Amino acid sequence: MKWLLSLVTLGMFGLIISIVLFWGLSFFVDGFDIDGVVPAVLGGLILTIGSSLASGLVK
Question: Which residue, among 41, 55, 42, 46, has the nearest Cα to 7 in the 3D structure?
Answer without folding.
Answer: 55
